[in-house]
Protein backbone atom coordinates (compact mmCIF):
# COMPACT_ATOMS: atom_id res chain seq x y z
CA UNK A 1 0.00 0.00 0.00
CA UNK A 2 1.42 3.34 -0.98
CA UNK A 3 2.09 5.96 1.68
CA UNK A 4 0.54 9.39 1.54
CA UNK A 5 3.17 11.86 0.50
CA UNK A 6 1.22 14.73 1.99
CA UNK A 7 1.61 13.51 5.56
CA UNK A 8 5.38 13.18 5.41
CA UNK A 9 5.71 16.42 3.51
CA UNK A 10 3.68 18.33 6.06
CA UNK A 11 5.62 16.74 8.93
CA UNK A 12 9.00 17.69 7.53
CA UNK A 13 7.73 21.12 6.50
CA UNK A 14 6.49 21.80 10.05
CA UNK A 15 9.87 20.84 11.49
CA UNK A 16 11.61 23.20 9.12
CA UNK A 17 9.18 26.03 9.86
CA UNK A 18 9.48 25.59 13.61
CA UNK A 19 13.27 25.58 13.43
CA UNK A 20 13.58 28.52 11.04
CA UNK A 21 10.47 30.44 12.17
CA UNK A 22 9.23 30.63 8.55
CA UNK A 23 5.53 30.13 7.91
CA UNK A 24 3.58 30.75 4.73
CA UNK A 25 0.54 31.89 6.65
CA UNK A 26 0.78 33.19 10.15
CA UNK A 27 -2.42 34.76 11.48
CA UNK A 28 -1.94 37.26 14.26
CA UNK A 29 -2.39 35.83 17.70
CA UNK A 30 -4.54 38.17 19.75
CA UNK A 31 -4.64 36.07 22.90
CA UNK A 32 -4.00 38.16 25.97
CA UNK A 33 -1.20 37.33 28.33
CA UNK A 34 -1.45 37.82 32.04
CA UNK A 35 0.81 40.33 33.66
CA UNK A 36 3.81 38.99 35.49
CA UNK A 37 3.51 39.64 39.18
CA UNK A 38 6.30 39.20 41.64
CA UNK A 39 5.60 36.68 44.36
CA UNK A 40 7.30 38.83 46.92
CA UNK A 41 5.55 42.14 46.36
CA UNK A 42 4.24 41.91 49.93
CA UNK A 43 6.85 41.61 52.65
CA UNK A 44 6.59 38.49 54.71
CA UNK A 45 5.87 35.87 52.06
CA UNK A 46 8.64 33.33 52.19
CA UNK A 47 9.28 30.96 49.34
CA UNK A 48 11.77 28.23 48.65
CA UNK A 49 13.39 29.48 45.44
CA UNK A 50 14.75 26.07 44.43
CA UNK A 51 11.54 24.86 42.67
CA UNK A 52 11.31 28.11 40.67
CA UNK A 53 15.02 27.94 39.86
CA UNK A 54 14.74 24.31 38.76
CA UNK A 55 11.68 25.16 36.66
CA UNK A 56 13.53 27.93 34.81
CA UNK A 57 16.55 25.70 34.26
CA UNK A 58 14.31 22.87 33.04
CA UNK A 59 12.58 25.17 30.56
CA UNK A 60 15.89 26.46 29.21
CA UNK A 61 17.32 22.96 28.89
CA UNK A 62 14.12 21.72 27.25
CA UNK A 63 14.18 24.62 24.79
CA UNK A 64 17.82 24.03 23.84
CA UNK A 65 17.25 20.26 23.62
CA UNK A 66 14.24 20.79 21.38
CA UNK A 67 16.29 22.89 19.01
CA UNK A 68 18.97 20.20 18.97
CA UNK A 69 16.36 17.51 18.27
CA UNK A 70 14.82 19.56 15.48
CA UNK A 71 18.25 20.09 13.96
CA UNK A 72 18.89 16.35 14.08
CA UNK A 73 15.55 15.55 12.45
CA UNK A 74 16.11 18.16 9.76
CA UNK A 75 19.55 16.72 9.13
CA UNK A 76 18.03 13.28 8.71
CA UNK A 77 15.42 14.73 6.36
CA UNK A 78 18.08 16.42 4.28
CA UNK A 79 16.87 19.93 5.04
CA UNK A 80 19.22 22.91 5.35
CA UNK A 81 19.87 24.11 8.89
CA UNK A 82 18.89 27.77 8.93
CA UNK A 83 18.46 28.90 12.53
CA UNK A 84 16.17 31.90 12.84
CA UNK A 85 17.50 35.10 14.42
CA UNK A 86 14.99 34.81 17.26
CA UNK A 87 16.44 31.44 18.25
CA UNK A 88 19.97 32.81 18.02
CA UNK A 89 19.05 35.70 20.32
CA UNK A 90 17.37 33.37 22.80
CA UNK A 91 20.34 31.00 22.83
CA UNK A 92 22.66 33.96 23.38
CA UNK A 93 20.46 35.13 26.27
CA UNK A 94 20.60 31.64 27.77
CA UNK A 95 24.40 31.68 27.61
CA UNK A 96 24.53 35.14 29.19
CA UNK A 97 22.03 34.10 31.87
CA UNK A 98 24.03 31.01 32.75
CA UNK A 99 27.24 33.05 32.87
CA UNK A 100 25.61 35.70 35.07
CA UNK A 101 24.24 33.00 37.34
CA UNK A 102 27.65 31.41 37.76
CA UNK A 103 29.28 34.78 38.48
CA UNK A 104 26.53 35.71 40.94
CA UNK A 105 26.85 32.35 42.64
CA UNK A 106 30.57 32.87 43.05
CA UNK A 107 30.37 36.48 44.24
CA UNK A 108 27.19 36.61 46.32
CA UNK A 109 26.31 33.03 47.28
CA UNK A 110 29.62 31.19 47.31
CA UNK A 111 28.40 28.69 49.89
CA UNK A 112 25.76 27.53 47.41
CA UNK A 113 28.53 25.72 45.55
CA UNK A 114 28.40 23.32 48.48
CA UNK A 115 24.65 22.99 47.90
CA UNK A 116 25.39 22.06 44.29
CA UNK A 117 27.90 19.49 45.48
CA UNK A 118 25.31 17.97 47.82
CA UNK A 119 22.68 17.85 45.08
CA UNK A 120 25.16 16.05 42.83
CA UNK A 121 25.85 13.54 45.60
CA UNK A 122 22.12 12.85 45.77
CA UNK A 123 21.59 12.57 42.01
CA UNK A 124 24.95 11.56 40.49
CA UNK A 125 24.22 7.80 40.24
CA UNK A 126 21.08 8.53 38.24
CA UNK A 127 22.61 11.37 36.22
CA UNK A 128 25.31 8.92 35.16
CA UNK A 129 22.70 6.51 33.77
CA UNK A 130 21.06 9.40 31.92
CA UNK A 131 24.40 10.52 30.51
CA UNK A 132 25.16 6.98 29.30
CA UNK A 133 21.75 6.84 27.61
CA UNK A 134 22.40 10.22 25.98
CA UNK A 135 25.82 9.28 24.60
CA UNK A 136 24.35 6.01 23.32
CA UNK A 137 21.60 7.84 21.42
CA UNK A 138 24.14 10.29 20.06
CA UNK A 139 26.10 7.41 18.53
CA UNK A 140 23.70 7.10 15.57
CA UNK A 141 24.22 10.56 14.02
CA UNK A 142 27.92 10.46 14.95
CA UNK A 143 28.42 7.12 13.22
CA UNK A 144 26.44 8.32 10.21
CA UNK A 145 28.62 11.43 9.96
CA UNK A 146 31.79 9.38 10.45
CA UNK A 147 31.09 7.16 7.45
CA UNK A 148 30.09 10.10 5.27
CA UNK A 149 33.32 12.01 5.86
CA UNK A 150 36.01 11.23 3.30
CA UNK A 151 38.96 13.10 4.82
CA UNK A 152 41.03 10.94 7.17
CA UNK A 153 41.91 13.73 9.64
CA UNK A 154 38.35 14.84 10.49
CA UNK A 155 37.25 11.20 10.78
CA UNK A 156 39.94 10.44 13.36
CA UNK A 157 39.22 13.67 15.24
CA UNK A 158 35.48 12.92 15.38
CA UNK A 159 36.13 9.37 16.56
CA UNK A 160 38.57 10.49 19.26
CA UNK A 161 36.22 13.19 20.54
CA UNK A 162 33.18 10.93 20.68
CA UNK A 163 34.84 7.94 22.28
CA UNK A 164 36.83 10.20 24.60
CA UNK A 165 33.60 11.70 25.92
CA UNK A 166 32.00 8.25 26.11
CA UNK A 167 34.96 6.85 28.05
CA UNK A 168 34.85 9.79 30.47
CA UNK A 169 31.14 9.18 31.08
CA UNK A 170 31.70 5.47 31.58
CA UNK A 171 34.37 6.15 34.22
CA UNK A 172 32.45 8.86 36.09
CA UNK A 173 31.31 6.41 38.83
CA UNK A 174 34.93 6.10 39.93
CA UNK A 175 34.65 9.69 41.15
CA UNK A 176 31.09 9.52 42.52
CA UNK A 177 31.00 9.71 46.29
CA UNK A 178 27.57 9.58 47.89
CA UNK A 179 26.75 8.86 51.50
CA UNK A 180 23.71 6.83 50.41
CA UNK A 181 25.84 4.26 48.59
CA UNK A 182 26.17 2.00 51.61
CA UNK A 183 24.97 -1.27 53.10
CA UNK A 184 21.53 -0.99 54.72
CA UNK A 185 22.92 -2.48 57.93
CA UNK A 186 25.34 0.45 58.18
CA UNK A 187 22.60 3.08 57.95
CA UNK A 188 22.97 5.48 60.91
CA UNK A 189 20.03 6.31 63.18
CA UNK A 190 17.44 8.67 61.78
CA UNK A 191 18.27 12.33 62.60
CA UNK A 192 16.17 14.03 65.24
CA UNK A 193 14.06 17.00 64.20
CA UNK A 194 14.22 20.58 65.44
CA UNK A 195 11.32 22.86 64.60
CA UNK A 196 12.58 26.03 62.92
CA UNK A 197 10.56 28.70 64.75
CA UNK A 198 8.33 25.80 65.64
CA UNK A 199 6.19 24.33 62.88
CA UNK A 200 5.80 27.36 60.57
CA UNK A 201 3.90 25.39 57.93
CA UNK A 202 1.24 24.39 60.46
CA UNK A 203 1.03 27.45 62.70
CA UNK A 204 2.24 31.07 62.96
CA UNK A 205 5.96 31.06 63.66
CA UNK A 206 7.34 31.65 67.16
CA UNK A 207 4.02 31.15 68.92
CA UNK A 208 2.64 28.80 71.56
CA UNK A 209 0.56 27.14 68.85
CA UNK A 210 3.69 26.57 66.78
CA UNK A 211 5.39 24.98 69.78
CA UNK A 212 2.49 22.58 70.32
CA UNK A 213 2.51 21.62 66.63
CA UNK A 214 6.24 20.99 66.91
CA UNK A 215 5.61 18.50 69.69
CA UNK A 216 2.88 16.81 67.63
CA UNK A 217 5.37 16.39 64.76
CA UNK A 218 7.65 14.36 66.97
CA UNK A 219 10.41 16.97 67.05
CA UNK A 220 12.66 17.15 70.10
CA UNK A 221 13.70 20.81 70.00
CA UNK A 222 11.80 24.07 69.53
CA UNK A 223 14.17 26.51 67.80
CA UNK A 224 13.21 30.17 68.07
CA UNK A 225 14.39 33.79 68.21
CA UNK A 226 14.42 35.98 71.31
CA UNK A 227 14.46 39.76 71.75
CA UNK A 228 14.25 41.92 74.86
CA UNK A 229 11.45 44.48 75.18
CA UNK A 230 12.01 48.08 76.25
CA UNK A 231 11.09 47.13 79.84
CA UNK A 232 13.35 44.07 79.97
CA UNK A 233 11.03 41.16 79.12
CA UNK A 234 12.51 38.57 76.71
CA UNK A 235 9.94 37.66 74.04
CA UNK A 236 9.80 35.67 70.82
CA UNK A 237 10.26 37.57 67.56
CA UNK A 238 12.44 37.05 64.51
CA UNK A 239 12.20 40.30 62.54
CA UNK A 240 13.55 43.69 63.56
CA UNK A 241 10.25 45.15 62.37
CA UNK A 242 6.84 43.90 63.46
CA UNK A 243 5.08 44.53 60.15
CA UNK A 244 5.42 41.02 58.70
CA UNK A 245 3.99 38.88 61.48
CA UNK A 246 1.81 41.26 63.52
CA UNK A 247 -0.98 43.81 63.12
CA UNK A 248 1.24 46.66 64.31
CA UNK A 249 0.10 48.80 61.35
CA UNK A 250 -3.44 48.94 62.75
CA UNK A 251 -2.62 49.00 66.48
CA UNK A 252 0.35 51.40 66.33
CA UNK A 253 0.15 52.98 62.86
CA UNK A 254 2.79 55.61 63.65
CA UNK A 255 5.36 53.06 64.87
CA UNK A 256 5.42 50.54 62.05
CA UNK A 257 9.11 51.24 61.40
CA UNK A 258 10.16 51.04 65.03
CA UNK A 259 12.48 48.25 66.13
CA UNK A 260 10.71 45.30 67.70
CA UNK A 261 12.67 45.78 70.92
CA UNK A 262 11.47 49.39 71.26
CA UNK A 263 8.01 48.22 72.31
CA UNK A 264 7.13 47.54 75.93
CA UNK A 265 5.76 44.20 77.00
CA UNK A 266 2.32 45.75 77.57
CA UNK A 267 2.32 47.07 74.01
CA UNK A 268 3.51 43.78 72.57
CA UNK A 269 0.70 41.86 74.26
CA UNK A 270 -1.82 43.98 72.33
CA UNK A 271 -0.55 42.67 69.01
CA UNK A 272 -1.99 39.73 67.12
CA UNK A 273 0.61 37.40 65.59
CA UNK A 274 -1.69 34.85 63.93
CA UNK A 275 -4.04 36.67 61.57
CA UNK A 276 -1.30 37.29 59.00
CA UNK A 277 -0.72 33.53 58.76
CA UNK A 278 -4.29 33.00 57.57
CA UNK A 279 -4.16 35.89 55.10
CA UNK A 280 -0.90 34.94 53.36
CA UNK A 281 0.60 31.54 53.99
CA UNK A 282 4.39 31.87 54.25
CA UNK A 283 5.04 28.54 52.52
CA UNK A 284 3.74 27.24 49.24
CA UNK A 285 2.14 23.83 49.47
CA UNK A 286 1.11 24.22 53.11
CA UNK A 287 -2.23 22.61 53.91
CA UNK A 288 -5.19 24.73 54.92
CA UNK A 289 -5.90 24.80 58.63
CA UNK A 290 -8.93 23.06 60.06
CA UNK A 291 -11.65 24.99 61.88
CA UNK A 292 -10.23 24.64 65.43
CA UNK A 293 -6.70 25.37 64.20
CA UNK A 294 -7.85 28.49 62.35
CA UNK A 295 -9.51 29.79 65.48
CA UNK A 296 -6.40 29.00 67.51
CA UNK A 297 -4.17 30.79 64.98
CA UNK A 298 -6.39 33.88 64.96
CA UNK A 299 -5.95 34.29 68.72
CA UNK A 300 -2.16 33.99 68.92
CA UNK A 301 -0.28 36.77 70.73
CA UNK A 302 3.39 37.54 71.24
CA UNK A 303 4.71 34.96 73.73
CA UNK A 304 7.25 35.71 76.44
CA UNK A 305 10.30 33.48 76.72
CA UNK A 306 9.20 32.33 80.17
CA UNK A 307 5.84 31.17 78.75
CA UNK A 308 7.59 29.21 76.03
CA UNK A 309 9.93 27.52 78.50
CA UNK A 310 7.02 26.40 80.69
CA UNK A 311 5.05 25.14 77.70
CA UNK A 312 8.10 23.34 76.28
CA UNK A 313 8.69 21.59 79.60
CA UNK A 314 5.07 20.39 79.58
CA UNK A 315 5.55 18.91 76.09
CA UNK A 316 9.00 17.44 76.86
CA UNK A 317 10.70 19.73 74.34
CA UNK A 318 14.09 21.37 74.55
CA UNK A 319 14.43 25.02 73.52
CA UNK A 320 17.21 26.53 71.42
CA UNK A 321 17.16 30.22 70.54
CA UNK A 322 19.03 32.97 68.77
CA UNK A 323 19.34 36.06 70.96
CA UNK A 324 19.17 39.36 69.10
CA UNK A 325 20.91 42.44 70.46
CA UNK A 326 18.65 45.51 70.93
CA UNK A 327 19.47 48.82 69.18
CA UNK A 328 22.08 51.16 70.66
CA UNK A 329 19.62 53.46 72.39
CA UNK A 330 17.93 50.52 74.12
CA UNK A 331 18.00 50.28 77.91
CA UNK A 332 19.29 46.71 77.77
CA UNK A 333 21.66 47.09 74.84
CA UNK A 334 24.63 45.95 76.94
CA UNK A 335 22.82 43.71 79.43
CA UNK A 336 20.40 41.80 77.19
CA UNK A 337 22.30 38.53 77.74
CA UNK A 338 22.07 38.84 81.53
CA UNK A 339 18.40 39.78 81.28
CA UNK A 340 17.67 36.68 79.21
CA UNK A 341 19.76 34.40 81.40
CA UNK A 342 17.95 35.59 84.53
CA UNK A 343 14.63 34.85 82.84
CA UNK A 344 15.73 31.31 82.00
CA UNK A 345 17.02 30.64 85.51
CA UNK A 346 13.93 32.12 87.18
CA UNK A 347 11.57 30.05 85.01
CA UNK A 348 12.33 26.95 87.05
CA UNK A 349 12.82 24.66 84.05
CA UNK A 350 15.81 22.26 84.04
CA UNK A 351 18.93 23.95 82.71
CA UNK A 352 19.67 20.97 80.47
CA UNK A 353 16.43 21.68 78.64
CA UNK A 354 17.86 24.93 77.25
CA UNK A 355 20.31 24.88 74.34
CA UNK A 356 22.28 28.14 74.55
CA UNK A 357 23.28 29.36 71.09
CA UNK A 358 24.44 33.03 71.51
CA UNK A 359 28.19 33.62 71.62
CA UNK A 360 27.93 36.84 73.65
CA UNK A 361 29.15 36.42 77.25
CA UNK A 362 29.22 32.65 76.85
CA UNK A 363 31.79 32.21 79.62
CA UNK A 364 29.55 34.09 82.06
CA UNK A 365 26.56 31.98 81.00
CA UNK A 366 28.52 28.77 81.53
CA UNK A 367 29.52 29.93 84.99
CA UNK A 368 25.98 30.88 86.01
CA UNK A 369 24.27 27.87 84.38
CA UNK A 370 26.77 25.00 84.12
CA UNK A 371 24.08 22.43 83.21
CA UNK A 372 22.88 24.43 80.22
CA UNK A 373 23.96 22.86 76.93
CA UNK A 374 26.24 25.14 74.91
CA UNK A 375 25.67 25.15 71.16
CA UNK A 376 28.35 26.48 68.81
CA UNK A 377 27.93 27.85 65.33
CA UNK A 378 31.48 26.85 64.37
CA UNK A 379 34.23 24.58 65.58
CA UNK A 380 35.95 25.81 68.72
CA UNK A 381 33.62 28.66 69.60
CA UNK A 382 34.94 31.11 72.20
CA UNK A 383 35.56 28.56 74.90
CA UNK A 384 38.72 26.76 75.88
CA UNK A 385 36.85 23.46 76.04
CA UNK A 386 35.91 21.51 72.94
CA UNK A 387 32.29 22.07 71.79
CA UNK A 388 29.92 19.19 72.34
CA UNK A 389 27.22 20.37 69.95
CA UNK A 390 27.55 22.09 66.56
CA UNK A 391 24.76 24.00 64.81
CA UNK A 392 25.77 24.62 61.20
CA UNK A 393 24.18 25.26 57.78
CA UNK A 394 23.72 22.08 55.78
CA UNK A 395 26.04 23.48 53.09
CA UNK A 396 28.91 22.80 55.50
CA UNK A 397 28.42 19.03 55.31
CA UNK A 398 31.22 18.50 52.72
CA UNK A 399 33.60 20.26 55.12
CA UNK A 400 32.76 18.05 58.09
CA UNK A 401 34.14 14.68 59.12
CA UNK A 402 31.05 13.36 60.87
CA UNK A 403 32.70 10.12 62.00
CA UNK A 404 35.64 11.96 63.56
CA UNK A 405 33.29 14.36 65.32
CA UNK A 406 31.26 11.47 66.71
CA UNK A 407 34.44 9.86 67.98
CA UNK A 408 35.05 13.08 69.93
CA UNK A 409 31.45 12.97 71.26
CA UNK A 410 30.43 16.01 69.21
CA UNK A 411 26.83 16.09 67.98
CA UNK A 412 26.00 17.88 64.72
CA UNK A 413 22.79 19.71 63.82
CA UNK A 414 22.36 21.13 60.31
CA UNK A 415 19.86 23.77 59.19
CA UNK A 416 17.50 24.47 57.39
CA UNK A 417 16.47 21.15 55.81
CA UNK A 418 13.03 20.88 54.20
CA UNK A 419 13.39 18.43 51.30
CA UNK A 420 13.24 14.62 51.63
CA UNK A 421 16.23 14.09 49.31
CA UNK A 422 18.40 16.39 51.41
CA UNK A 423 17.17 14.86 54.65
CA UNK A 424 17.99 11.42 53.21
CA UNK A 425 21.52 12.48 52.29
CA UNK A 426 22.15 13.91 55.77
CA UNK A 427 20.66 10.77 57.28
CA UNK A 428 23.09 8.58 55.36
CA UNK A 429 25.95 10.90 56.35
CA UNK A 430 25.23 10.32 60.04
CA UNK A 431 24.03 13.78 61.05
CA UNK A 432 22.47 13.76 64.53
CA UNK A 433 19.66 16.24 63.93
CA UNK A 434 18.31 18.78 61.46
CA UNK A 435 16.40 22.03 61.82
CA UNK A 436 13.39 22.10 59.51
CA UNK A 437 10.33 24.10 58.54
CA UNK A 438 8.52 20.95 57.43
CA UNK A 439 8.64 18.66 60.43
CA UNK A 440 5.36 16.97 59.52
CA UNK A 441 6.83 15.78 56.19
CA UNK A 442 10.21 14.63 57.47
CA UNK A 443 8.64 12.96 60.48
CA UNK A 444 6.81 10.58 58.12
CA UNK A 445 10.04 9.34 56.53
CA UNK A 446 11.05 5.92 57.81
CA UNK A 447 13.80 5.31 55.27
CA UNK A 448 16.00 7.40 52.97
CA UNK A 449 14.62 8.21 49.53
CA UNK A 450 17.22 5.87 48.08
CA UNK A 451 19.92 3.62 49.49
CA UNK A 452 22.07 1.45 47.22
CA UNK A 453 24.57 -1.15 48.48
CA UNK A 454 28.03 -0.71 46.90
CA UNK A 455 27.92 -4.11 45.17
CA UNK A 456 24.51 -3.35 43.69
CA UNK A 457 25.71 0.02 42.43
CA UNK A 458 28.79 -1.65 40.94
CA UNK A 459 26.56 -4.08 39.05
CA UNK A 460 24.36 -1.20 37.85
CA UNK A 461 27.45 0.62 36.64
CA UNK A 462 28.90 -2.40 34.81
CA UNK A 463 25.61 -3.48 33.21
CA UNK A 464 24.77 0.07 32.07
CA UNK A 465 28.19 0.58 30.53
CA UNK A 466 28.26 -2.86 28.87
CA UNK A 467 24.84 -2.40 27.30
CA UNK A 468 25.87 1.03 26.06
CA UNK A 469 29.14 -0.28 24.59
CA UNK A 470 27.31 -3.07 22.77
CA UNK A 471 24.81 -0.59 21.36
CA UNK A 472 27.64 1.70 20.25
CA UNK A 473 29.36 -1.17 18.43
CA UNK A 474 26.07 -2.26 16.86
CA UNK A 475 25.38 1.31 15.73
CA UNK A 476 28.78 1.75 14.09
CA UNK A 477 28.59 -1.68 12.44
CA UNK A 478 25.11 -0.92 11.12
CA UNK A 479 26.19 2.48 9.81
CA UNK A 480 29.21 0.84 8.20
CA UNK A 481 26.86 -1.56 6.45
CA UNK A 482 24.73 1.36 5.32
CA UNK A 483 27.83 3.14 4.02
CA UNK A 484 28.85 0.09 1.98
CA UNK A 485 25.31 -0.15 0.64
CA UNK A 486 25.49 3.48 -0.43
CA UNK A 487 28.82 2.87 -2.16
CA UNK A 488 27.38 -0.15 -3.93
CA UNK A 489 24.23 1.57 -5.13
CA UNK A 490 25.74 5.01 -5.55
CA UNK A 491 22.86 6.59 -3.66
CA UNK A 492 23.19 9.61 -1.45
CA UNK A 493 20.59 9.28 1.23
CA UNK A 494 21.01 12.82 2.50
CA UNK A 495 20.55 14.57 -0.85
CA UNK A 496 21.34 18.13 -1.67
CA UNK A 497 18.45 20.50 -2.46
CA UNK A 498 18.99 19.81 -6.18
CA UNK A 499 18.83 16.03 -5.72
CA UNK A 500 16.11 14.32 -7.75
CA UNK A 501 15.31 10.92 -6.24
CA UNK A 502 14.90 7.97 -8.58
CA UNK A 503 11.38 7.11 -9.50
CA UNK A 504 11.91 3.57 -8.27
CA UNK A 505 12.27 4.63 -4.64
CA UNK A 506 8.67 5.79 -4.01
CA UNK A 507 7.41 2.71 -5.79
CA UNK A 508 9.27 0.14 -3.70
CA UNK A 509 7.00 -2.69 -2.66
CA UNK A 510 7.13 -5.07 0.34
CA UNK A 511 8.24 -7.82 -1.99
CA UNK A 512 11.64 -6.20 -2.46
CA UNK A 513 14.05 -7.48 0.24
CA UNK A 514 15.70 -4.56 2.01
CA UNK A 515 18.35 -4.47 4.68
CA UNK A 516 17.61 -2.44 7.86
CA UNK A 517 20.06 0.25 6.82
CA UNK A 518 18.58 0.44 3.34
CA UNK A 519 15.04 0.67 4.74
CA UNK A 520 16.06 3.69 6.81
CA UNK A 521 17.76 5.27 3.83
CA UNK A 522 14.74 4.66 1.62
CA UNK A 523 12.46 6.31 4.19
CA UNK A 524 14.69 9.40 4.33
CA UNK A 525 14.81 9.58 0.56
CA UNK A 526 11.03 9.33 0.33
CA UNK A 527 10.62 12.16 2.83
CA UNK A 528 12.99 14.35 0.82
CA UNK A 529 11.21 13.47 -2.41
CA UNK A 530 7.89 14.54 -0.94
CA UNK A 531 9.43 17.76 0.35
CA UNK A 532 10.87 18.58 -3.04
CA UNK A 533 7.46 18.00 -4.62
TrEMBL record:
Matches recorded under InterPro entries? GP_PDE_dom, PLC-like_Pdiesterase_TIM-brl
Q: Does the keyword Isomerase apply?
A: no
**Domain GP-PDE positions:** 191-446
- Record localization: Membrane
Q: Which PANTHER family match?
A: GLYCEROPHOSPHOINOSITOL INOSITOLPHOSPHODIESTERASE GDPD2 (PTHR23344:SF1), GLYCEROPHOSPHORYL DIESTER PHOSPHODIESTERASE (PTHR23344)
Q: Which protein family is it in?
A: Belongs to the glycerophosphoryl diester phosphodiesterase family.
Quote the protein name from its UniProt record. Answer: Glycerophosphoinositol inositolphosphodiesterase GDPD2 isoform X5
Q: What organism does the record attribute this protein to?
A: Physeter macrocephalus
Its gene name is: GDPD2
Amino acid sequence: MGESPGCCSVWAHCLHCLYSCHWKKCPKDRTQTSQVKFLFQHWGHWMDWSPAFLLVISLLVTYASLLLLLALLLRLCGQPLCLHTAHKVLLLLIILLVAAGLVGLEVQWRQEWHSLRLSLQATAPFLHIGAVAGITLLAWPVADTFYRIHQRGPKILLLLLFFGVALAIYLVPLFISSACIMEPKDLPPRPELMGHRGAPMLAPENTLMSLRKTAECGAVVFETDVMVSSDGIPFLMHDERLTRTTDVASVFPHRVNSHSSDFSWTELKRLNVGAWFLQRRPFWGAKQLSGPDRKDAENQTVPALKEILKEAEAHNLSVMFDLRRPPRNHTYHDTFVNQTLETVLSSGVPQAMVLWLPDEDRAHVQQQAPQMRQIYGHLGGHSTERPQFLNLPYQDLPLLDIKALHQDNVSVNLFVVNKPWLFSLLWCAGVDSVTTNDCQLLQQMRYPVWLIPPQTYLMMWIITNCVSILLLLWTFLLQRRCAKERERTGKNFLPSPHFSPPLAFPLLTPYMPLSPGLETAVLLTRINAFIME
